[in-house]
Amino acid sequence: MNQRTVFFVSDQTGITAETLGRSLLAQFGTVSFRQVTLPFISSVDKAKEAVRRIKLTAQVEGRRPVVFATFAERELGELIRDSGALFIDFFDAFIGPLEKEFDTSSSHTVGRKQGVSSDQSYQRRIDAMNYALSTDDGIGLRSYDQADVILTGVSRTGKTPTCLYLALHYGVFAANYPLTDEDFEKPHPPEALLKNRKKVFGLTITAEQLRRIRLERRPDSRYASAQQISFELREAMAMFRRHGISYADTTDSSIEEISSTILDTMSIDRGDSR
């Protein structure tokens, strides 16, 4: 398979470059991508070091890398552009047309936000992150009444990373509860889920994919055995269907896609004014 190295470079976190860049890369299924993120390239020295890495990659691999970038500071972006890579700056792509449409120049301010509402959004995301960590893997059951959504499913179906993504990007208070053999022995879902039934969303995955994941974590264990995995997935699906719990298959879905499905299905607001 054709393989290329892709850099996500930004003077901030790089999340925007990663999200947009990966959406574009997903259209090229015959190409394998080695992805490298270089965040907080906020000085000339850091930009020059990034250029050195990009040029070295081109030299070693014998083909130019692809760079997806978001730079509010044009000088830094121009330094990266001179690396010889295929350079795609999302700010360049969108700021120019917007300046023309609004008949005014943008501020090009690094990390600029929209005032007080943005500060409130930022604080909510921090609170949501703390909530996700404090309710991870079935802990903090008493605070489930604060949740916007409670993810459930067997171990290693993507509950924790999805909760953290929802918190970081949308300020969603997401808890997660792992289903175990003990839960399957009971006629009803765990009490914590039953009391918050309308907030519960299930995650599932194919047995083959789950076994690959568990074998990496605990090889030669009952936890990773085909029989145990088949049993857990079968029981979890039976619980979802019996109690009308909406669910998503995470096998071939990115965290972004899973999160979007959850937000839509559970009618959770995506807005910054949350």
Please sum up the structure shown.
The chain is of the alpha/beta class and 274 residues long. The protein folds into two domains: 101 residues, Rossmann fold (3-Layer(aba) Sandwich), CATH 3.40.50; 150 residues, Rossmann fold (3-Layer(aba) Sandwich). It is 47% helix and 16% strand.
Summary keywords:
alpha/beta; Rossmann fold; 2 domains; four-stranded parallel beta sheet; 8 strands
Tell me what the structure shows.
It is a single chain. The chain has 274 residues and is an alpha/beta fold. The protein folds into 2 domains: 2-102, Rossmann fold; 116-265, Rossmann fold, CATH 3.40.50. Helix content is 47%, strand content 16%. It has 11 helices and 8 strands. The chain has helices at 15-25, 44-61, 74-81, 90-102, 115-134, 159-170, 181-184, 191-195, 207-217, 226-242, 255-265; strands at residues 2-10, 31-38, 66-70, 86-89, 149-153, 174-178, 200-204, 247-249. The longest helix is centred in the middle third of the chain and has 20 residues, at 115-134. Residues 110-117 have low confidence and may be disordered.
The total of helices stands at: 11
**Integer-rounded radius of gyration:** 22 Å
Can you identify the CATH class of the largest domain?
Alpha Beta
Percent strand equals 15-25%
- Assign the structural class, choosing from mainly alpha, mainly beta, alpha/beta, alpha+beta, or little secondary structure: alpha/beta
CATH topology (level 3) name of the largest domain: Rossmann fold
What is the strand tally?
A: 8
Mean pLDDT: 90
Number of spatially distinct domains: 2
Order of strands across the biggest sheet? 2-1-3-4
Topology pattern, helix = H, strand = E = EHEHEHEHHEHEHHEHHEH
